[in-house]
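Quick entry, no commentary yet.
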Amino acid sequence: MADVPSYYPQGPHLPFGQAVAVGLGAGAIGVAAMTATNKLEQLVTGRPNSYVPAYTTGNLFGISHGRTPDGLNHLHHWGMGLITAPVRAVMAYNGFTGPYASFIFMALRLTADEVLEYNNGTTPPPWTLPILDQTVDLLHKFVFAFVSGYVCDRTIQGVRYFGRDY
């Protein structure tokens, strides 16, 4: 069977401002998916909650994280998702779509986290962390990036990952 050519979007279906707004919504959906897979992974592995996001947010804003680490964790994850996902929307708006674009976006999302965590004295460089911690972080950022990317690509460009639009 011959390869079928990839569907390349012909142009965005939305104005730029609406595309950025889609990015905000895609970020929220991506964080919800990431949170769900995080809890599922914790059930399977028995890994406890990580409070690195809470410590990072607390250090960044001068908030004591002692009494509300779960709330600060959620603030960090939702905040980072809503801040970074509009970038993925701009990528989709400009025709940079599909799994490859989401993979590149995953690197951006990881970089944003690591810069904040390292520069706030919360963690050492990520490559010095235990392999399990690195793997878990990559897994959850993968879920966030690909779910957010799918929502952006489908809404902004009409790209279907699981169907034929060619």
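second:
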Amino acid sequence: MVLVKPLFHLYAFNATRQQYEAELQAANCFKDAEKFNVQVFESFDNARSHSGMDMFGGGTLSDMMERYTLSRAENAIEKVRTLVQQAQRLSPDIQGLGDIDVSHGYIMSGIMSDNIFIDMA
């Protein structure tokens, strides 16, 4: 009878330690996601710059660079989403991300009929 109480405390300690380690891993997932989130905003900023250059005569190269940077943003968003899902598996209190849609525009109208009115749309 004397051994039951120490064993219960040992099980409670182990459960608490496992929960702490899971929360710590979830926090590390968010640290990693934050780095990719910075990449998302940098890519959006670069895409906006390329779009501005395209409006004032950047041509096909600016269109292609804009789409490339939007694609990089989309890849970084997927990495953020994956890391958040990992954190959710580790800690059930974490909510998921909502829908994030990166619009690439219309490639044919953006390249084939390249003019300032299409670029401003």
